[in-house]
Backbone:
């Protein structure tokens, strides 16, 4: 190596992680193009009225709702990393509620059907979900049971060939628009963690009541429901997976939920960073772009470092997850770290924007509000810390 | 578990061997060496006998990365720093830019552990700002007369040769007039050990050069082009520092997990928090390592990896000391880790490099 071979900085060079191939990059480009052309223009409108159901239909037509599902059910047969690509690119809709609604469908409610469902259930629910003809939601949280999943009270009682369900669920994303819910119930109150069972419940059954839409800090484009189940009768074939194994099934589901949440958080932070960098390089103060002030420059350096660390943690963990490992500790770390840095980045970006960041016009405050959910949903920061700490035997 | 690239099963087996050596041959001496402010030169011979002083020159850079991580288990930042300075900053410029004569004069005995190297860049008035180096090389018949001062030079007292950044061009040329000369211990070279917060087993020195004659054949690379050589070497140095921090955090967290059971939720969460930050720094460091090994420009990744790991390591050691309680090794670890955000380019310099590339 001679001195002339010494490399100069090249910040535009391709820096792809080893989990991604050219095919993933093509997928990324096509999703980005779709998102910018067909979704992004509606972001402001959907923020007022929640996003339209046609998005599912359209994404189903494009094959985006079953990227890693087997072809025999209408999926694309891709690997897990395709889901990450979707989770990252949909962020460019600038519509956090939309990204969440889609992720609930693709990475939370439907994967348990593929993993634990019968062939009949796959045909009846998975196939139309992948087409975007049926919309799904997932029912875990209750008014009196959030982080403490084992405290849920929604009861399913066997009655002949049927089960009768009573209880309520809250903070249910897609809860108003959904055609069916993957529902966590207690079937044996005396069996501890072995007393839970999952059901697939059609939302048009008698006794399923959709209460008022919940108003919230952010994620306004998403419909978030409080649901009541009053003597809802479902056939025995509505059981998803094994009776008594619901707790373990849902703990498995949460891993995918946390992975995709983490990927989305990093992508959101990156998008906000890029937008704020453009602003800082244009916005003039004291005779120069604010990006030329050293303190601003260092803010960007710190943010870029945090985002990159989070991204690498997510990718490396996703690689382990896709290898068939069950890296609960690492997934919890990725979810925790990505959610935290996303909120930190959002706050710093708002600060760099100053008054403009506080105004709705620039869209910064919206992302700031939307991202705050990441530290709460799918397991709070504190639950992540507990899971991580316990994984070490502490 | 499948090892994360670029590490392979073979590297994990190598890691086990290095760990055994570090725990059995180095760690038991840590306190004695710390008190002495010195570790014996035989350590270099021991490492050389195993072939570990020139792993990357045999083509296995990943093994060098493993060594850097595992040296963090020796319980003495000063020992790890002395070995690391020889392996990772003093010999690479000779390997990369030296002629075959230069390699046989310094690199080969260095790999045999018979000659110890140091890299001499920092000066009393030129730290982060490398371009303001003042150590002067006056051209004379057959070479140069070098005069000036260097400071914070790891291995500075024991070194047989110093890869030294000197000014060969006019001061007005800034980074344009710097060259790398190899100075040997001898007439006109004075070295004095510095007392410091941590890294106490390392003979960190200030050097004075008084009209040291350096033959023309001791010029590394091109005249007046030394700045680029210095910058090229920084990437590996910073990457190794990130790896060292990763290894140090892993070591101390393993101990925390083993000793802090049953302390309650606040401790559990604190350790989980530190472990998460360590995991993020590790993921970023391995990404930078892969990128570096791929041969692409890795400046951004390496800079981020160093920034993400050094302060994190210090805070990790500091918190674990607080949680585990008084303990010489942990106290040393805290003092040693504090150099991380300073050495090899401060955190502020890392932010400047990254920030300037963005805005």
Residues:
């Amino acid at each position: 190596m001679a001195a002339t071979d010494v490399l100069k900085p090249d910040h535009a060079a391709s820096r792809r992680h080893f989990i991604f191939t050219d095919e993933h990059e093509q997928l990324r480009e096509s999703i980005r193009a779709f998102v910018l052309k067909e979704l992004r223009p509606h972001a402001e409108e959907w923020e007022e009225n929640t996003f339209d159901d046609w998005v599912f239909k359209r994404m189903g037509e494009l094959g985006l709702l079953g990227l890693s599902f087997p072809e025999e059910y209408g999926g694309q047969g891709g690997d897990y990393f395709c889901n990450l690509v979707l989770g990252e690119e949909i962020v460019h809709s600038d519509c956090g509620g939309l990204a969440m609604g889609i992720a609930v469908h693709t990475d939370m409610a439907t994967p348990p059907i593929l993993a634990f469902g019968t062939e009949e259930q796959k045909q009846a629910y998975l196939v139309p979900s992948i087409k975007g003809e049926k919309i799904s939601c997932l029912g875990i949280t209750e008014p009196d049971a959030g982080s403490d999943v084992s405290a849920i009270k929604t009861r399913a009682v066997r009655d002949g060939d049927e089960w009768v369900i009573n209880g309520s669920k809250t903070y249910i994303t897609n809860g108003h628009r959904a055609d069916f819910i993957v529902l966590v119930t207690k079937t044996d109150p005396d069996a501890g963690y072995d007393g839970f069972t999952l059901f697939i419940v059609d939302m048009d059954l008698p006794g399923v009541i959709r209460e008022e839409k919940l108003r919230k800090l952010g994620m306004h484009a998403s419909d978030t429901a409080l649901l009541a189940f009053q003597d809802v009768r479902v056939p025995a074939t509505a059981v998803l997976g094994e009776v008594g194994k619901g707790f373990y099934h849902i703990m498995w589901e949460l891993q995918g939920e946390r992975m995709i949440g983490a990927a989305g958080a990093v992508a959101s932070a990156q998008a906000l960073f890029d937008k704020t960098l453009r602003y800082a390089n244009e916005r003039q103060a004291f005779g120069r772009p604010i990006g030329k002030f050293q303190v601003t420059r260092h803010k960007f350096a710190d943010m870029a470092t945090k985002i990159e660390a989070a991204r690498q943690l997510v990718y490396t963990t996703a690689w382990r997850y896709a290898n068939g490992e069950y890296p609960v500790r690492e997934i919890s770390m990725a979810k925790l770290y990505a959610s935290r840095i996303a909120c930190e980045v959002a706050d710093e970006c708002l600060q760099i924007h100053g008054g403009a960041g506080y105004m709705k016009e620039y869209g910064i405050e919206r992302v700031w509000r939307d991202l705050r959910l990441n530290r709460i949903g799918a397991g709070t920061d504190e639950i992540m810390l507990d899971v991580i700490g316990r994984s070490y035997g502490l | 578990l499948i090892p994360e690239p670029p590490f392979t099963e073979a590297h994990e087996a190598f890691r086990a061997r290095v760990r055994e050596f570090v725990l059995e041959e180095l760690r038991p001496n840590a306190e004695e060496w710390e008190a002495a402010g010195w570790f014996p030169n035989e350590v270099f011979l021991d490492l050389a006998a195993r072939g570990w002083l020139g792993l990357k020159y045999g083509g296995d850079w990943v093994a060098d990365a493993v060594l850097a991580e595992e040296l963090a288990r020796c319980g003495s930042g000063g020992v790890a720093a002395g070995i690391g300075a020889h392996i990772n900053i003093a010999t690479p410029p000779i390997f990369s830019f030296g002629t075959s004569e230069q390699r046989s004069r310094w690199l080969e005995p260095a790999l045999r552990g018979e000659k110890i190297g140091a890299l001499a860049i920092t000066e009393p008035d030129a730290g982060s700002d490398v371009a303001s180096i003042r150590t002067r090389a006056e051209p004379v018949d057959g070479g140069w007369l070098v005069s000036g001062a260097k400071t914070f030079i790891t291995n500075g007292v024991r070194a047989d040769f110093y890869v030294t950044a000197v000014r060969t061009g006019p001061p007005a040329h800034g980074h344009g007039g710097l060259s790398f000369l190899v100075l040997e211990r001898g007439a006109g070279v004075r070295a004095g050990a510095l007392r410091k917060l941590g890294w106490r087993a390392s003979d960190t020195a200030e050097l004075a050069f008084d009209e040291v004659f350096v033959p023309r054949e001791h010029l590394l690379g091109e005249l007046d082009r030394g700045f680029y050589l210095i910058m090229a070497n920084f990437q590996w140095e910073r990457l190794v520092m990130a790896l060292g921090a990763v290894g140090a955090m892993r070591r101390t967290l393993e101990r925390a997990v083993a000793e802090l059971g049953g302390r309650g939720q606040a401790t559990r969460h604190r350790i989980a928090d530190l472990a998460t930050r360590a995991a993020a720094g590790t993921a970023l460091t391995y990404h930078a390592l892969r990128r570096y090994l791929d041969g692409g420009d890795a400046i951004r990744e390496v800079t981020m990896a160093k920034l993400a790991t050094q302060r994190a390591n210090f805070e990790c050691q500091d918190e674990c000391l607080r949680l585990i309680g008084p303990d010489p090794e942990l106290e040393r670890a805290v003092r040693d880790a504090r150099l991380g955000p300073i050495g090899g380019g401060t955190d502020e310099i890392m932010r400047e490099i990254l920030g300037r590339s963005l805005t």
The longest helix of chain A spans residues 246-282. The two ends of chain A are 50 Å apart (CA to CA).
